[in-house]
Amino acid sequence: MGKIEFANCQDVRNQKKIRELDCPRCHEPGGIEAFVKDGILAEDGVCDNCGYILPEGTELEEVEYEALKGIPEKLEL
Ligand SMILES: [Zn+2]
User: Fold this and answer.
1) Separation of 22 CA from ligand 1 center, angstroms?
2) Which of 26, 32, 71, 77 is the most exposed place for a label (fewest CB within 10 A)?
3) What are 16-68's pLDDT values in tens digits?
4) Calpha distance 44→55 (Å, rounded)
5) pTM assigned to the model
6) Alpha carbon separation from 5 to 8, 16, 31, 36, 44 (Å, rounded)
7) CB 25 within 8 A of CB 17
8) In the prediction, which pLDDT does 62 show?
9) How far away, in angstroms, is 74 Cα from ligand 1 center?
10) 35 with 20: CB under 8 angstroms?
11) 33 CA distance to ligand 1 centroid (A)?
12) How far is the CA of 58 from the centre of ligand 1 (A)?
């Protein structure tokens, strides 16, 4: 009894946020809609463009770093 109210308070604190992430594979900007909680993916995120799956538990920083690394270098021929 009374525990339900307490649980609701916890839910508000731990709410998931939706973040649009650039896909690490095809680099589609905002291609992956991810549920993020405490900087970590709370659910698998799937790229709308290529179907790439970011697994649950992936850290956002990791994804953003990968996306930066993936920028193609200019090739001078
Ligand atoms: Zn993709």
Assistant:
1) 8
2) 77
3) 889 999 998 999 999 999 999 998 999 999 999 999 999 999 998 887 766 66
4) 5
5) 0.64
6) 5, 19, 37, 24, 29
7) no
8) 82
9) 21
10) no
11) 11
12) 16
